[in-house]
Amino acid sequence: MKRIALAATLASAVALQSAWAQEDRVWVDGELSYGLDVVPPDVVDTSPEQDRIRSGFDGEIGVNYDLGPAIVRASAGARIFPSESDYNRYPLAIAARYDVPLTSDNRTRLRFQPSYEYVFGNDGRVFDRPRLDTQLIHRHNPEHTTTLRLRYGYRNQTERRFSGYDQSEWLGEVRHFWRPNGGPTRITGSLLGLRADADDDRFSYNGYGAQLIARTDLRDDLQAYGRVYFAHRDYKAPFSSLYPYDRSDNTLRVTAGLEKRLNERFSLFGEAGYARNNSNVPTRQYDGFVGRIGIILR
């Protein structure tokens, strides 16, 4: 694991040096934060009294390269839980974005976003996942944009801790962006369709959800934002011998925050809210405060 982390660090350093040498076509972005949040979904703990909301550090740095018709991004990150190192995750990813105009005025376009993610923990690989994200985007006018989105991914999970979690993942989304009167307020609403087909049916589900995101300028260097997310999932098989029935979850997450711009590249942010998973399986149920403070590099 240390060799992989060292290689990632060296690759990031080389990429950063290249980025500063080619400012017009290459740029760096990233984020570093500390706070309380939900542990990864593949964390296994059979105790009904477990706490699935833990404090931790979250960080990512990415290098973007504009090729003209496409943008390529490579990134490395870390999610560290001081109280439980087995939960730690270190993702490496490569992604691209390619737009195909469908009209001469570019108001309607197709967007393709292929990506590959490799995630390891303190004891080796956790999973890797290729994805293809396809979006049909139509800009009605400066105030309104509608997007139809379909994303497919395949999660190849290590079987070191448990088996049957390898799965095909589908996400369908209808999204609408609204900027009232072309002003500083931006509102995005989404309807979601969710599906996972896992090797073990107790991890397979069908579901649906909705999301609302709003952001507005309070002044030139200060923004306020909020997000509401809800999802319902029905699983396809009994969860375990201890809980011999099909699992059903309702997930709710509500957060609000402020972002303070320091200069053209750096911003500070802080956000707080509430997260809940109301599940008929006690080991998958949680609710409580979530929040983060951090810095953003653009």
From TrEMBL:
Annotated signal sequence range: 1-21
- SUPFAM superfamilies the record matches: OMPA-like (SSF56925)
Q: Keyword Signal: yes or no?
A: yes
Q: What protein name applies here?
A: DUF560 domain-containing protein
What is the top-level taxon of the source organism? Bacteria
Sorted UniProt keywords: Signal
